[in-house]
Design a protein that fits this description.
The protein is α+β, with helices and mostly antiparallel strands. It has five helices and ten strands. The termini are far apart.
């Protein structure tokens, strides 16, 4: 059978999602170990999006193959029993063999949370990116509009990115704030390595008044990572939603960061 899971995790303390040759602790590693104990056989999982070191997820989706017969509830609670603090399975369901966590995805959404305060955060450290000054939201929105649509995002991908094509389509790129929190929401058909963090870094530079809004358009057209500015920190970046064709009936995660009450 093919089983799909929803997974939430705090990426702090992990060397990203993907298994590493050096034996570092990864989210994939601890999830595979926990599922394997419930299934009573080794399990290898596929995910919707491989997140970097320090990046979090509220809407990660995975799938795996198994002959083990377990109820959805048993998969969830059994796996969570063996997972460390900060990683949890939120749902489980059997899916058609045509479903693939990565290749069946239509859209992915990331949220980037910026905490604007004169002094650095304490309890939120590692979960938000800190700006010691208030950023110009309208200037950032001006810059963001140039990134909407289908473009060559070479300027916004890591030099080591292994994607065959730098072309992606951004469907939504919204910025809003709740008190000291500034939230960047970006939804696309796919993302390049460090793409969201590089977008955030450019927009934060505009928000600080170091560049004008149309700088986004200028560097996008240059297709050169060297002109793209600093990569924003991983803290504050969350994979929040993956959208699939309706026939697979994949549960939608809660939109934490679109809800003003979450920040109160």
């Amino acid at each position: 059978m093919r089983i799909a899971f929803g997974v939430e995790y705090d990426g702090g303390g992990y060397s990203g999602w993907q298994l590493q040759k050096g034996g570092e602790t990864t989210v994939q590693g601890v999830v595979e170990e926990a599922i394997s104990r419930v299934a009573a056989h080794p399990v290898r999982i596929s995910c919707a999006g491989r997140t970097d070191t320090g990046v979090h997820a509220t809407g990660q989706v995975i799938h795996f193959e198994t002959d083990a017969q377990r109820s959805d509830r048993a998969w969830v609670y059994g796996t969570n029993t063996h997972l460390p603090k900060g990683v949890v399975v939120t749902w489980a369901k059997g899916v058609d063999d045509a479903f693939h966590a990565r290749f069946s995805a239509l859209r992915r959404r990331y949220s980037y949370i910026i905490y604007q305060r004169e002094v650095r955060p304490t309890f939120l450290a590692g979960r938000v990116t800190w700006s010691h000054r208030v950023l110009d939201l309208e200037a950032m929105r001006t810059g963001a509009k140039y990134l909407l649509g289908r473009h060559d995002f070479t300027t916004f991908r890591a030099v080591a990115c292994q994607a065959k094509s730098p072309v992606r389509e951004i469907f939504q790129l919204q910025l809003h704030h709740h008190g000291p929190y500034l939230i960047l929401e970006v939804e696309a058909d796919g993302f390049l390595h460090h793409m969201v963090r590089n977008i955030a870094g450019v927009l934060m530079k505009i928000g600080r008044g170091e560049r004008e809004g149309d700088w986004c358009q200028q560097i996008l057209l240059q297709r050169d990572r060297r002109v793209g500015g600093a990569t924003a920190p991983p803290a504050g970046l969350y994979l929040t939603r993956v959208e699939y064709p309706g026939e697979f009936q994949i549960p939608a995660p809660p939109d934490f960061f679109m809800n003003a009450e979450f920040f109160q």
